[in-house]
Each structure stands twice: as structure tokens, then as C-alpha cells.
Design goal:
- By secondary structure, this protein is mainly α.
- The protein folds into two domains: about 5-290, Fido-like domain (Fic-like fold); about 310-380, Orthogonal Bundle (Arc Repressor Mutant, subunit A).
- It is built from 15 helices and five strands.
- The chain has helices at about 35-55, 65-80, 90-95, 105-125, 130-140, 180-190, 200-215, 220-235, 250-255, 255-270, 270-305, 315-325, 330-340, 345-355, 375-380, and strands spanning about 5-15, 15-25, 330, 360, 370-375.
- Strands 3-5-4 form a three-stranded antiparallel β-sheet.
- β4 and β5 (about 370-375) form a beta hairpin.
- α7 packs antiparallel against α8.
- The protein is globular.
Length: about 375
């Protein structure tokens, strides 16, 4: 449904150049959303997929084993959209104090995303609403190392920015001027917290994402924080118990359509077209996550069955497989901590698991401070990435 322009333009100046900045109308849309049979059917499919995703703990012995790596995969993909080159293995090597294969700033930015999501989840579980405080804390965590440290962590931007084009008067989109950001966020905060009226959580997540990207409140990190808000809203609403829905892979695969739908909302007011795209992203992503969990569960069972070839060492080797499921790139010290085994025992088991079974792979080529990867696990996580 095309409602026309969903805001108004004001004169602004960016980089000494006059331009027209866009200030969005508050949510919810006016006139209200039209949920025809097609859209409602796709929303229903998305909710069913979310239900299966939330039941993922029945597919894995411990959902946290999956959550650790899946959160990091999202951090990598969300940061890659912003231009970093870090991979999942780079991030896990960095966390093991190994040397990633990309510039350190790239992997630090990804690590900060993990920290921001962890902090957001902690605040929600402590009973805090999604508010100015939470968003500022999240942005601070997101921007406290790497290139972000000089980009105003935890502060609304104080300058006019523009998106696309080399000049603001030729930009694809110019977000609100800095003096309008506080009011825009305040209105969005009320909408997120069901004031003055409640909104279905899935629809709320979809609309909030567009509005946040349109307000573009920070100098940097808006895309990552806007994507991070989606699982936080669904967890706060009780749709998901763990933040397992990450749309960055889908958005990256369909990047051009994603940006077109955002701009279409602003210019024509077609929120329904955006919702169709968003709920399809949710359905596809949730189904992929469930399939990944199943594949990981099968891998664990297959590799544990193969451990019988190690004879009396099989039981201890099983502890290492469990530890690698918690963290698929690890050093001997970490594995000792996880399993209670001695360094000598862990070293012998890893050698056997690498040379006899080809389950793990040593990454450094060093004789000391060695780091091992559960390569098949990582390959499964990477299967649906572009």
C-alpha cells in the first residue's frame, strides 16, 4: 500500500553543502498496515519458523553449544556488510589470542559486536526495557575498539551525514539533522515499548529496523546496531528465549532489494512491501538455523561414534569433542580447562584425533602454543553464507 512520503524534508548542510534531510513520521504507520491474505500467510509462516527455532534446544544437548558459534557467525556477517574482511575463524583465533588473517581492526570490530549483543541480552534479562540507556550502552560496546573508538561511542551524532553519492546534494538518502535525532529516537522508544498501543512483536521488529536506519542516530555503527535490535525485540517479547535469529546473511545475499525496500518505505510509504521482504528473511533464516543445528547434531554423533577407533582413549576424546562443540577453535589450555584433563593427555588425544581420525586440524604449524580447529563444525556454520 502506497501512503506517499512517510515524513518531511528540511534544509540542512553537510560538509558545507546544502541538502534536503528527511525526518520520518513517528510509528506506527498511518493509515494502518493492511494485512491482506498474502502478507498474513507469510507472517504465519515466519512465526512457525520462529517456533521451530525457539525449540532448537531439543535438537542439541545444550543450546549454548550452538549459541556461542552462531552469535559469532552473525557478528562476522553483520560486520562484513559494513566492509570488514574478518571471517568466523579469524574471530575465534583472535579470541584464542592467535593471529587472524585480516587486519586487527577488522576482527576487533567483530568482537565488539559480540560484546554489544551480550550486553543487550544481559540488560533484557535484568528486566531493562529497550531504551535510551540500553541503546547507548550497546553502541558504546560496539565502538570501543578497532576503528570505532574515534566515531563517538555512546553519543548521538552531532553532524549531518548522508548515504550514497559523493556529495550530500546528490545522495541516495540524507537522514535527519542532528538536532532532530533525540525527538526521533524518543518517539521510536515509545513505539518499541508499546506506547500508546501494543504492536505484534514480529511486526514491531520489522518497523523498528526501518525507523532506526532512517533516523541513523550515530556517526557509525547504525547498520550493526539496527540489525542487533531485531533479536533483542523478539527475546524481550518472549518469541525467542535465545538471540538465535540473525538476518545479516539474508540481507547480504539480497542487499540491493534490502536497500530498495528501505527507501521505498520512506518515499512511497509501502510498509507492506518491506514487511513481505522482512518476514521472508525471518522464515528463511530461522529454517537455515534449524537445519544447521540438525547438521551439527549429526556431526557430533558421527564423530563420537568414530572415537571407538582410539580404544581406551575414546572416553577422554569424547570430552574433547564436547569442548570443541562449545568452542570450535581452541588451544590446549582452554581444552584442559573445559575437560579437566592434563595438558599431556590433551596433547596426545589431539594428535590422535588429527592424524588417525582427521577430526581436528592444527592451525599454527608451531610446536608450542598450538591452536586446533574442529574444521567440519566450522564448515557447517559457513555453508549458507554468501
Amino acid at each position: 500500500m502506497e501512503r506517499g512520503l512517510t515524513g518531511h524534508y528540511v534544509d540542512s548542510i553537510a560538509g558545507g553543502v546544502r541538502c534536503q534531510a528527511f525526518i520520518p513520521d513517528p510509528l506506527p504507520p498511518r493509515p494502518p498496515l493492511t494485512l491482506d491474505g498474502k502478507l498474513q500467510g507469510r507472517i504465519n509462516h515466519a512465526m512457525l519458523a520462529l517456533g521451530r527455532l525457539d525449540a532448537i534446544s531439543t535438537l542439541l544437548p545444550d543450546a549454548s553449544l550452538f549459541l556461542y558459534s552462531y552469535v559469532r557467525k552473525e557478528a562476522v556477517m553483520s560486520s562484513q556488510i559494513e566492509g570488514t574482511q574478518s571471517s568466523l575463524s579469524d574471530l575465534m583465533l583472535y579470541e584464542m589470542e592467535g593471529m587472524p588473517g585480516v587486519p586487527m581492526d577488522d576482527v576487533q570490530e567483530v568482537s565488539c559486536y559480540v560484546n554489544a549483543l551480550t550486553l543487550g541480552m544481559q540488560r533484557i534479562r535484568e528486566g531493562f526495557p529497550i531504551s535510551h540507556r540500553l541503546i547507548m550502552e550497546g553502541h558504546t560496546a560496539l565502538m570501543t575498539s578497532g576503528r570505532g573508538i574515534n566515531r563517538g561511542p555512546g553519543e548521538f551524532r552531532s553532524s549531518q551525514v548522508w548515504l550514497g553519492g559523493h556529495r550530500p546534494d546528490e545522495a541516495v538518502f540524507v537522514p535527519p539533522p542532528p538536532q532532530s535525532i533525540a525527538d526521533g529516537w524518543s518517539a521510536l522508544e515509545r513505539f518499541i515499548n508499546d506506547l500508546p498501543e501494543a504492536t505484534d512483536p514480529l511486526i514491531k521488529a520489522a518497523l523498528t529496523h526501518v525507523q532506526f536506519e532512517t533516523i541513523h542516530p550515530f556517526l557509525d555503527g547504525n547498520g550493526r546496531l539496527g540489525r542487533l535490535l531485531i533479536p533483542l525485540i523478539l527475546v524481550e517479547a518472549g518469541i525467542l528465549h535465545e538471540p538465535l535469529l540473525y538476518l545479516s546473511v539474508f540481507f547480504k545475499k539480497h542487499r540491493q532489494t534490502y536497500y530498495e525496500r528501505l527507501q521505498q518505505v520512506r518515499v512511497t510509504g509501502d510498509w507492506e512491501a518491506w514487511l513481505l521482504f522482512f518476514v521472508d528473511a525471518v522464515t528463511d533464516t530461522a529454517n537455515q538455523a534449524v537445519a544447521t543445528a540438525r547438521r551439527l547434531n549429526e556431526l557430533r554423533e558421527q564423530d563420537k561414534a568414530r572415537l571407538g577407533e582410539l580404544g581406551r582413549q575414546a572416553g577422554s576424546a569424547g570430552l574433547l569433542v564436547d569442548a570443541f562443540f562449545q568452542q570450535p577453535i581452541a588451544n590446549i589450555g582452554h581444552l584442559c580447562q573445559r575437560t579437566g584433563l592434563t595438558p599431556a593427555t590433551v596433547g596426545k588425544l589431539l594428535t590422535a584425533m588429527e592424524t588417525k581420525l582427521d577430526i581436528v586440524q592444527e592451525l599454527t604449524g608451531h610446536k608450542r602454543n598450538r591452536i586446533y580447529a574442529y574444521r567440519a563444525y566450522i564448515d557447517i556454520l559457513n555453508q549458507d553464507t554468501p
